[in-house]
Design brief:
about 50% helix, 4 strands, alpha+beta, about 90 residues
Length: about 90
C-alpha cells in the first residue's frame, strides 16, 4: 500500500490532524497537510508544530508513533492559511 493511500485512509478517520509520515529521507505529507508544512516552514521541527498549537499524528508505515493533541487546536486555521497562500501563488504567478 502506498503512502498516499495510507494518508487517504487515515485522513478519513482523523480529519482534524496534521498527518506526517516518516521516510528514509525524513518526513513527508500529502494534500493540504503538505501545504501546511510548507506554510509553517517545518524543516523536521516538531517543537514548532507544538508551539503553533497544531494537532498532529506521526506515522511510520501503518503504525502511529506519536499523536499530539493541543487543548486549543489551530489545525483548521493553518488549513485556511495554506489554502490562501496557494490561491495567492496562482494569482500572482
Amino acid at each position: 500500500m502506498s503512502a498516499l493511500n495510507r494518508y487517504k485512509i487515515i485522513k478519513n478517520k482523523h480529519n482534524n490532524y496534521l498527518l506526517i509520515f516518516t521516510t528514509k529521507k525524513g518526513y513527508t505529507s500529502f494534500g493540504i497537510d503538505k501545504l501546511i508544512l510548507e506554510t509553517i516552514n517545518f524543516k523536521n521541527n516538531f517543537k514548532l508544530i507544538e508551539k503553533l498549537g497544531i494537532d498532529y499524528i506521526l506515522i511510520s508505515n501503518v503504525e502511529i508513533i506519536k499523536k499530539y493533541n493541543h487543548t486549543n487546536s489551530q489545525y483548521n486555521r493553518y488549513c485556511y492559511l495554506a489554502a490562501i497562500k496557494t490561491i495567492l501563488k496562482k494569482i500572482i504567478g
